[in-house]
Amino acid sequence: TLRRDLALTTFAVTIIGLGVGATATIFNVVNAVWLRPLPFHDPERLVWIANGTDANLSAQTVQVMNLQELEAQSASFDGVAAFSPFYGVGDNQLTGSGDPERVTGIPVTADFFPLLGVTPRLGRTFSDAEAQWGAPKAVILGDAFWRRRFAADPGVVGRVITIDGAPATVVGVLPRHFDFAGIFAPGSRADYFVPFPLGEQTNRTGNSLALIGRLQANATIESAQAEATLVGDRIKAGSVNDKLWRNAFRPVITPLRERISGQFRTALLALSAAVSVLMLLVSANLSNLLLARASGRQRDLAVRAALGAERWQLVRQMLIESLTLAGAGALAGAALAATATTFLARLDRTTIPLLYDARVDGLALGAIAFVAIATGLAVGVLPAIQASRQTPRHILSEASRGSVGVSRSWMQRAVVIAEVAVVCVLLAGAGLLARSLIRVLDADLGFASENLLTVRVDPRRASTTRASRNVYFDDVLREVAAVPGVDAIGLTDALPFGENFGWREWGVTLPGQSGPNRKRANALVRMIDDRYLTTMRIGLRSGRAFTAADLDSTEPVAIVNETLARMLWLDADPLGQLLYTAGRERRVVGVVGGVKYFGLDRDSGPEMYMPLRQTGDYHVVDLVIRSAASADRLIPAVRAALRRVDPNLPLTEFHTMSELVDRAVFARRFVVQLIAAFALFGLVLASLGLYAVIAYSVSQRRQEIGLRMALGASPHLLRRRVMTETFRLALAGVVIGLPIAWMATRTLRSLLFGVEPTDPLTFAGVLTIVIAVVGVAGYFPARQASRIDPVIALRS
Questions:
Q1: CA 656 → CA 34, 131, 536, 629, distances in Å?
Q2: Is the terminal CB of the chain with fewer CB neighbours within 10 Å at N or C?
Q3: Which residue has the higher pLDDT, 298 or 502?
Q4: Containing H/E element for 108?
């Protein structure tokens, strides 16, 4: 039966395959990011211990002493471990065998891996002796780094490698399922791990650790929170070791899963809702097609009924056909989902945690089977009910007249109205998210991101003193500035949207003030050279930029942004004023506008710039190059220029600033693109459904239309009547759909930027798009009706 109607079968299998593929892909993403347990032992007992509720990482991290006191005084924890989030991606250099390479090392406490329940595939974890200050360096390699750099050599354990010019012994290799960056720092990478010593030396560095705790079997988050709060109060009261430098500890304990994936919950719910709506549209469209097909099979059904087929047998036949279509579509959808899921999991610059682990597993196959069965039943139930309601005499009577039942016609129209209503909801959500993305992309970054190329330059191995580093910088700038096509160059220790130490904050106060009323601010600190502001085109509001004369031997100076200036001096002129930070006074010589460093949808906070040549408090430095030349042409020339300065400098990772900006909006764009694709697919399905209903109605009314034309009705009048019927159905769907969309889009508030959930422009756009598509869907049946030959229609 299905083979005889090959066109309908092919269409049905195709749209079911697309719908099931989209549904399964989103399920795989949601499963990886939110549903599947974290790849740790007993992950439900793992918690994140933040220091306050600020979004700023510096404020959330804790001091070494705080970790030690929490572990010693709390009975709710089976253990507390930590890692230092203040590492720079590519800050370290691996030399020796092979080409020099920039690598990323993550400092972790000795019990970090045992607390998570992560067992190395080779070797062991760190010993207590290796986690002491001044101990010989030991490293544990990540699985991907081990496979890429060491060709998965099982004999790598015990080998001595050279990192930053110093020997380090490999003591272990982590298992493949543990991807630190994919879990804790998506979009980053973690090549190896080093021990973080817990002692007085590291305690002086201040808040430098991100804490993870494992609850006792009988403990709850509430009990752990109460105990941790008491520890924080004791530290605040000064009852714990007064001789040590103490920072405030305001513990906030949440499940580790919430910390890792919680910010994406709304987006995942929106994607799940959108793909569920899409499957409803698929089911509705196929129901309409099968209803139309059933009317063409009236004679077949009548003969079967006349020959003794029971009602349940007719219903069974219709349902088996629809389930067969759904099963074939599910097979195609499973293949599509596997391809799409693999593509998403391999995205290199994703900022969505755990997305790397998205895959088609047994649970996903079960979900595909469930969706297929549900779709098959959903699309077959209306035709089956319709077929079972009529007697053989009634069926034969209708079949002989070639007419269509009123109830079937009503069902088809009701389904189309529901499709239009659902599409309105999808389009409204996609429109709001798209407008929000446009607002984000149009946000003022505080600098010009186009035509900027960046590369990491590391003077540490080539220079050991501040003076020699300045000479190194002079050589780098001179050689690169001479490259044809280079318009401007500059140096900084922290790029906007970059990965190197971007969260560093320093406390800033005004000299001479003390007591509770003194003005204090925590400012993001950037070390830059005298060309950086010009190269980045960061607006100078007043004063001057740094010059080559701002050296260690001259007066310490600083440039502040407008936000920090208002916080410290209110409406007074900050130029010439002194500020105190990091144990030193600095004179303000300039004021600049704010720069977005961490997100296009986040306001710039207080920022402070210091001359690179006047301080040694930085790790690595990025070279920023402005040029109208293409990156493909510029990179080889810049690489050759830098090789002349330092032949051993790793120069494999060049980035354009546009790439860094795109990475910053990856998650938002990801959600928008998927929901927009679902909305477009739904719009196509609804328009096809509307077209099918109107075209079928025209074909069933050929005799009526022929009679009207014979009695003098003009083609224009007939086209207008068909278009009126089309818009009447669409209007009913819009009247139902827009109020639902008006309420549903309020759930997207946390995903929107610069756009209200009830944005009238978006809803006006939805109405315009629906009217335009409905007009196209109704035009062709209307034209067909106006071209019917009355003589042929009446003879038939």
A1: 32, 38, 12, 12
A2: C
A3: 298
A4: strand 105-108
Beta bridge partners of 255: 47
In tens, the pLDDT along 649-684 reads: 777 778 899 888 888 888 888 999 999 999 999 888
Q: What is the pLDDT of residues 425-448, one digit of tens each?
A: 999 999 999 999 999 988 889 999
Instruction: For residues 344-356, give the mean pLDDT.
Output: 83
**pLDDT for residue 394:** 57
* Residue-wise pLDDT tens digits, 100-148: 888 899 999 999 999 999 999 999 999 999 999 989 999 999 999 999 9
Mean pLDDT of 287-314: 71
CA-closest candidate to residue 363, choices 29, 99, 796:
29
Tell me if residue 678 falls in helix, strand or coil. helix
Residue 19: is its pLDDT beyond 50?
yes
> How far does Cα 555 stand from its chain's mean position?
45
* Distance, CA of 575 to CA of 544 (rounded, Å): 9
End-to-end CA distance of the chain: 27
Q: How far is CA 340 from CA 343, 368, 430, in A?
A: 5, 14, 21
Query: How far lies 69's CA from each of 64, 112, 242, 269, in Å?
Result: 9, 17, 13, 39
Give the count of beta carbons closer than 10 Å to the beta carbon of residue 97.
10
Cα angle for residues 658, 497, 436 (degrees, 5° grid): 75
Under a CB-based contact definition with an 8 Å cutoff, are residues 609 and 540 in contact? no
- The type of residue at 565 is A
Spell out the residues 6+ positions from residue 730 whose beta carbon is closer than 8 angstroms to its own: 420, 690, 770, 771, 774
Q: Is the pTM of this model over 0.85?
A: no
Length of the chain: 796
For residues 381-408, one letter each, b for 16 or more C-beta atoms within 10 angstroms of the residue's C-beta and e for the rest, the string is: bbbbebbbebebeebbebbeeeebbeeb
State the average pLDDT for the chain: 86
Among the ranges given (317-326, 367-376, 491-500, 547-556), the one the predictor scored with the smallest mean pLDDT: 491-500
Interatomic CA distance for residues 532 and 495, integer angstroms = 11
Q: Return the structure tokens found at 546.
A: 């740094």
526, containing H or E segment: strand 520-528
Report yes or no: 375 and 693 within 8 Å, Cβ to Cβ.
no
What gap in Å lies between CA 459 and CA 462, rounded to an integer? 5
Number of H helices, E strands in the chain: 25, 23
Q: Quote the tokens at residue 412.
A: 């088809």
**pLDDT at 7 (0 to 100):** 78
Q: Is the pLDDT confidence value at 82 over 70?
A: yes
Question: Among candidates 617, 606, 618, 624, which has minimal Cα distance to 496?
Answer: 624
Q: Summarize pLDDT for 55-76 with one digit per residue, the tens.
A: 555 557 888 988 998 998 889 9
Long-range contacts (CB closer than 8 Å, 24 or more residues apart) made by 695-704: 695/780, 695/781, 695/784, 696/292, 696/412, 697/409, 697/725, 697/781, 698/722, 698/781, 698/784, 698/785, 700/402, 700/403, 700/404, 701/785, 702/788, 702/793, 702/796, 703/793, 703/794, 703/796
pLDDT over 50 (residue 189)? yes
- CA distances to 107, 286, 410 from 725, rounded to whole Å, are 69, 21, 13
Q: Residue with structure tokens 């891996």? A: 113
Helix (H, G, I), strand (E, B) or coil at 330: helix
DSSP secondary structure code for residue 158 in this structure: T
Q: Are 518 and 509 in contact (CB under 8 A)?
A: yes
Q: Round to whole Å and give the CA distance between 715 and 490.
A: 72
- Residue 587 backbone dihedrals phi, psi, to 5 degrees: -95, 135
CB–CB of 138/126 below 8 Å? yes
Average pLDDT (80-88) is: 88
Residue 348 structure tokens: 């290199």
Helices 311-345 and 362-389: crossing angle in degrees, nearest 10, is: 150
Query: What would the two tokens of residue 153 be?
Result: 């050599």
| Pick from 329, 328, 352: nearest CA to 674 | 352
DSSP bridge partners of 678 = none
